[in-house]
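Components:
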Amino acid sequence: MPFLKKYKELQKVVGKGIYGEPRTVLFAEIFEECDKFLSTLEIEDLISKVPGKEYFAFRMGGKSSRAVNKELFCRGMGGWDLLRECLSNNDLSPMSKTDLERTLYTLAISFCACIDIVKERDQQTPGTFFGYLVAYLLHWRLGVEPKTSIKIMSVEGEADVNLQTDLIYDLGLKKQKFHVPVKTSSRERAIMLWAHQKLLDGAYGIERYMGTPVLLAETKLDKKNREVVEICLPDQWKVYQLYIARLKRVYYLDMPTPYLRLQGEFPPIMVKSFADLFSEWDDLMPV
Amino acid sequence: MPFLKKYKELQKVVGKGIYGEPRTVLFAEIFEECDKFLSTLEIEDLISKVPGKEYFAFRMGGKSSRAVNKELFCRGMGGWDLLRECLSNNDLSPMSKTDLERTLYTLAISFCACIDIVKERDQQTPGTFFGYLVAYLLHWRLGVEPKTSIKIMSVEGEADVNLQTDLIYDLGLKKQKFHVPVKTSSRERAIMLWAHQKLLDGAYGIERYMGTPVLLAETKLDKKNREVVEICLPDQWKVYQLYIARLKRVYYLDMPTPYLRLQGEFPPIMVKSFADLFSEWDDLMPV
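Structure:
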């Protein structure tokens, strides 16, 4: 498949730490190939158990993609072309928030859906790609390259532990640092987000690294009855935020409605649309 | 398969909270059926990349079980019969530690191996069974029944959060309480063990609940090249123990050697054989 070939090229470029034009071109080619491939597939309406949201799946023969949000998914490359222009002009104002949300979601979910169809139970490739995509977008927004590991001081006489992480941003002297875990979903592993925050708090001081995870969605498709549910545990998140550590933001591309209320409660958990990051990021910094 | 039929009966007995004889009989029947089934299978020697340990897999047609530790696995029901006698006499002294280790390991791995052969990529059934087995053994040892959820105080005006957990033991007034996560492996999710400890520490006070996870093994079999590796992250565990929370014990049925050294270092992490639990449990209690 052409999108897989381009994905392998992207992996090489990422491995070499190359940002800028080569990476932009590869993303464009991947999106275009995914869009072409998806346009040849059948659409199956799914039974949505998620209030206020409708989902479909792409199908080819006996194989089916994950659930795709109908309202957020857009055919064609229009959104990407506009986003790319906005990115290069360093000005997102020509895009409405809705346009931005739909474009970001479409870019992420298209590749994941393609992999669901052409591979067997492959969760790793979509997850890795989603990480690359978020890193690419944040690189544009923040202007710095992330690290994907962090040194944690061990005890005296022993070497520091080099902990593999998702994205770590150091914006420079006296500025906030960020830890951005990137996952296609959190589900029953959400506590790991707070655990990593607690570890960084312990090793570097509280909120020296701000935790701002980026998640794709919390939907789950039952392969047999074709029902889509959203697995949300807002009450558990509250006790994690109360007793383990504080996350500064949790960004979603397909925002689960049950988490919205957490913004206005105590302890607040600011669960927001990933599109919000682009406008509010500067306000997260204390200097 | 007879062992699956018996497992379903066990699920019902567990669901009804019945301990004692009915559960003992079902375990005996399951072990016997597993032993019978496994004795009909081929044995494949695996390439062990784990220093000092050898592994094999059961095979039937194109299907293969997980890796089984050669030294710990015993054919037949001899160990179980002796253990059962020891359990009912409340005296484990007739069993050497090695016998106990081999018996416990064989009981756990036999059912997992059977499921590997008869089911497709089913991790849940072996995990659930392993939880039942550990709960059964601990019930005998501690004399109390575990809870599998715990109330965590949320903020004022909101209901407590009922957190689903593995095994929670409350030994009574002024005595230590225990939180026993039970997993077939921890791998890259080990941080969740410390996160749950931190959550309980936060909600109830430090070490009000002692964390003593029980794990089966950390082996991983590469399906293609037939190599067995052990995935161990001792340096990461040290920083978890240093910066997140303190686990009192980590018990293994197939003890990964790289974790042994953590006993003698700072911060100490007492990673031990599950068989040790039976002799040392009383010493873990402060009263």
